[in-house]
Design brief:
541 residues; Rossmann fold; 19 strands
Length: 541
Amino acid sequence: MRRAIPFLMLLTSGPGLFAQAGDSTTNPMVTILLAIVVLLAFFALVQVADNLLKIEARQLGVADKIGEVSLFPTLKDIMRPKLPAYAKELTVLEIKRGADLPIAGVAAKEIRQGQVTRFALQPPNWRGLAPIPRMLVQVGDSVQAGDPLFEDKKHPEMKFVSPVSGEVVAINRGPKRAITEVVLLADKTQRYRALTPPHLGSAKREELIEFLLQTGGWMLLRERPYDRIPDWHAVPKSIFVSTLDTAPLAPDNNLVIQGKGKDFQKGLEVLQYLTTGKVYLGLDARGAQPPADEFTQAEGVEKFWVRGPHPSGNVGVHIHHIDPITPSDKVWTMGVQDVVTLGRLWTEGRFNAERVVAITGGCVKQPHYVRTVVGAHIGELIKDNYHTEKEVRIISGDVLSGEAKSADNFLNFYDDQVTVIAEGRYYELLGWLLPFKPRISLSPTFPSFFFKNVQYDVDTNMHGERRAFVVTGQYEEVLPMDIYPQHLMKAILSNDYERMEGLGIHELIEEDIALAEFACTSKQPLQQILRRGLDMMWEQG
């Protein structure tokens, strides 16, 4: 309406102009003004049509699948590189909202053999598991890889198994005597518990589930909503596996999967028997070269291409656009290396939890990949390979959604990345106003906005304290979902359950909102707020 008012004024003032001009056929000024009025009126009509087109696309769900629909291409659309030739046969998920953070410390494309002797299984890594699970071993016991270490008190049929063979050297406890770590000293020569998997072609689904529960395969799965251990009594509507990780300094799965195609394919085959729906496989279409053959030639799955900035690799984004969930739906997810471990239960007849872990970050001397086992000791992973002359923060995972650890802690079960960056315990006078020090920022007011290919040695400084929680529209710019995250966060803070559900809380977990937390001017702990809301919704049933 604001744009239409000037046009209406011109149209209504047109007769007065003609009257003052006298003979309109001989006055060029009248002709020019008339042409301007016609052009402005045409522009107004086109704008109205464009707005109506966007509204209709959102109502039909088209905008959720292909992005914002418009008659006019944006500058980003014009400058966007063409879709690679290899990605034209399947559905392409174009993610336009988000941002890639250019952080220094990318791992070199080489895999070294890790010299790690201690490993741990950490009960807090699984949401929904009792804080004090029932222990099946004691300190001093000798176990094989795949032997049960503990079980859930509420569901004793679900076992959590040892990733390595060796001796149980510690059972560490935290607040209220909750078990935080079951530490194992690994044998030099690994021993594995022999497993006899059921035949996939003839076994019933219940037999497969029982086998996975007893052998550790079940703890590889995660369930949406809430990001918890899946309920094996429910049948998921679909299962999603993302082969691309777009988080800062994330490992390259094309390197990780080399030589594991048989195990990966068998893992996908197992997943097909666990759902009545489809198993979706997200493929990376961001590069000039196609992803690894192990991904593109996978069989029995619904493949689709994904292109765009982070968080385009998040499985939550894929679910939102490909097969959205409701509060009553169940969708299971798995990582690439988890699928490989699942497949090895059949191809090798053992629980082989080998992992390729990326050692990354600006404070790492030689960023590279390490071949190790899940739950490896972080201090041994990065020994003599990070700067100790300054205070650093060690993160299990990426800088956006990872967990801060010490060198005496262990890698989280689902993580395949260790990031080491400097601590930012300093103040900058007017740092927001006089940005002398180069830093990553999503705001176009900072010089870094114009230098997309420059990598920055970041630290943990937040560049400001927590401020008033104001509506800025920043979250929507980096969250490629049809969700209003700021309104959702305020609904959580006010304990408004109906509004939380209506605003789409069931579609999110911490990694989906992590980039919005980085962009937040108010410095709000959005991931903590979201987890609080998810836990409240879970308790409400």
